[in-house]
Every structure is written in C-alpha cells, then in structure tokens.
Amino acid sequence: TWSGKGAAACTNCEPGTISTVGSSACTQCPAGSIADRAGLSACTKCPPGSFANKKGSKECTKCPAGYFSSTLNSIECTPSPAGYFINGVGSTSYNPCPVGTWSGLGSNREGTASCTMCPPGSVAEEPGSTRCSLCQVGQYAPSPGSDKCFDCFPGYFTNKTGSSTCTACPPGTRSSIQRATECIQCNLENNLSYRSGMSICDECPEFAPTLTKYKCYDRVNTECSSKDGISKTCRYSVDLNVWSYGVAYADGPGRDFLFYTFSKTVDIKKFLLMAKSNARSSAENLNFRCLPSGKEKHFPTFRRYNNFECANAQAMEVTPKPYHKVIIMELAFFYKE
C-alpha cells in the first residue's frame, strides 16, 4: 500500500505494481515479473515456459507453439532451433524432428510448431534434421516422410538424383544388378524385345535367332556324318543340343564334306555358324548345299547368323574350299513354323 502527505489511510497498489512499508507511491514490476493482484509488496518472477515483456504486467504469458523459455524471469521466449519443434504452449524445452522430417529457421528466426515431411525422392535419415537429402542415382524414395532410399530392383534403373520411382528397362535391354543407373542393350539377333523390366536378356532357346520381337525361329534337330568315317568324321551331334562338332579337310582338289541330315523336312531360313579355318583371310571358305534342291552358297568360316533360305530341305552338305581345313565348332539350322 501507499499514501500521500496528510492521508488518513493507505491505498492498495494496483495489479502490476508493488510498494514496501512507508511508500509514498507504487512501483511497476520489471519485465519478466508480475503482480497479479492489488496490494502486493513484491513481484513474482515468471516461471519457465512463460514471459512478461512489459513493465507493470499483471500476468505471465505462456510461450506459444514453436517457442520456449527454460529459466525464471523471462522477458521473451526463444524459438526452437533448426531441426527441432515445439507443438504445445508453455514449453520449457524442444523436441527433435522425427526421421523423415525436417525443420529450419525462417528469415525472421521463427520457431517451428511442427516438422515438414521430406517429399518423395528425398529422405531425412537422422532425428533433428535441418534438411532433406536427395536419393542418389540408382535409388528412390516412393513416399513422403521417408527415412531411407531404396535401391532399384534388377530390371529397373534411374539416372537422376531425387527419384521417387525407378524406370523399367525398355524392351530389348536389361539390368542385372540392384541400383542400376542404366540398362544394357541386348543382342537383338537372338533376344526377344517385347517385354520391359527385364533383369536378363530374353534369349531365344538354343541360341536361335529372332523371327520377330515376339517370336524365335525354331531349331531343326540334326544328325551328322562325313564322307570318310575314319579320319574325317563329324564327332557327334545330339538332338536339342545346339553344339554340333565336326572336322572337314580338303587336302587337294577333291573335297571332303560334312553331311547334316534333318529330323524332318523343313523350310530353312537361317543358320548359326562358328568355325575355324587354316585360311589366313576371312574369305568365304565354306560351301553350303541344300538337299534335295541343290541350292548352294558360300559363307565365311565365322559368322554368327546367316540367311540361307531353302524350301523342303532334308539335309545340308557343308564342304570346305580345296586345300582348306575347317573345324566347325557350332552349327545349327533354323526354320519358321
């Protein structure tokens, strides 16, 4: 209370002010403290989680969401630091943003009441993150709020950072590893090319060539023999085994030959050939003659796939040029059903 000169009684100080014994006037409480009712002789410090930013305050104000005060007598609240948040009022501390989320400080250093989820293609792997990190090439994060990037599965790829999905390898290509950044082109001579997302090339069975991108040529089974079954023999050829072995000599003007008999009459379209020759050049050292039509054509000793159409074929005679030795390592004939 207080009184002026000649007063008959003392007067209570208003809320927000105090007086001591013998006071002739009331004094305002300093910022950070309050007097919440009339007639007080001492100010009360604002507790942690609240503040009073003016002299003569009647009550403490709770810190709003995003702000805190951890000490007594606060005149203002402190914004939560980057990477943290405060989602209630009257807080004395702050909490780290969960994984998959982040927070920063605005241009005016505002506090954060809630954390922001990382967008797809980015992650926050640790609590208290101040930013999201983009997924690296070969990885993706499909959902918002992710804390981990995932590797692309085999058959898929991404060559950009920050991807939310992986892209299926286009038809005719493949990726056989996780975290691929590109797809590898398949050899379309003997691999189909109509399916996407392949981890291996869509190879035709028995090394057959492709008829279309959807279909392979069929292989005709063969049995192999030679003109001279003692020294110049075709070693073996097994049905459903594309590897047909044989040796043919032409030591002089006369020529030895390998004779391939087909398991059925077919319209030959292509054949697969790998062979060695004693010739120094890659000239056309082998002659193919289709029977019974007699159609024939010369080919080099090494060529992966060869076009040689022969209708109603029952057998094929393979003969080297004079003075040549040829070792056939791989030979298979194909037809279109």
From TrEMBL:
InterPro entries: Growth_fac_rcpt_cys_sf, Tyr-kin_ephrin_A/B_rcpt-like. It comes from the Eukaryota. Pfam families: Ephrin_rec_like. Residues 38-68 form the Tyrosine-protein kinase ephrin type A/B receptor-like domain. Transmembrane segments: none annotated. Signal peptide: none annotated. This is Ephrin_rec_like domain-containing protein. The lineage of its organism: Eukaryota, Metazoa, Spiralia, Lophotrochozoa, Platyhelminthes.
